[in-house]
Amino acid sequence: MIRLRQVKKMYGNFAAVHGLDLHIRRGELFGLLGPNGAGKTTTMRMIAGIVAPSGGTVEVGGIDIFREPMRAKAMLGFIPDRPFVYDKLTGAEFLRFNAGLYGQEGPKVESLIDELLDLFELSRWKDELTESYSHGMRQKLIISGAFVHRPEVIVVDEPMVGLDPKSARLLKILFRRFVERGGTVLMSTHTLEIVEGFCDRVGIIRQGELAACGTMDELRQDAASAGAGLEELFLRLTGEHVEPDLDAIIG
Amino acid sequence: MPSSVDSRREPGVFHILRPKLLSARARFRTNSDRAPRGRNVVLGLTALVALGAAFVIAFRLVSYFKNVPEIGSLLAGKLLGVAFLAFMSILLLSNLVAALSTFFLAHDLDLLVAAPLDWGRFYLAKLGETVVHSSWMVALLSVPLLAAYMIVWDGGWMFPVVAISALVPLFVIPGVIGSAVTLLLVNIFPARRARDLLGLVTILAAGGLVLLLRLVQPEQLARPEGFASLVDFISVLRTPSHPLLPSEWASSMLMNWLTRIADPLPILLLWTTAGAFVVIGAALHRRLYVAGFAKAQEGRNEGVRSGPMGWIGRHSLGWLRVTTREFVLKDIRIFFRDSTQWSQLILLAVLIAVYLFNIRALPLFTGEQVPVFLVTLIAFLNQGLAGFVIAAVAARFVFPAISLEGRQLWLLRSSPLDPRAMLRSKYWVGMVPLIILALILTVTTNSILRASGFMMAVSVGTVLAYTLAVGGLALGTGTLYPQYDTENAAQIPTSFGGLIFMLLAIALLAAVIVLEAVPVTSYLRARQSRAEWSPSVFDVAAFVAAGACCIAATWIPIRLAAARLDELET
Question: Which of the ends of chain B has fewer CB neighbours closer than 10 A, N or C?
Answer without folding.
Answer: N
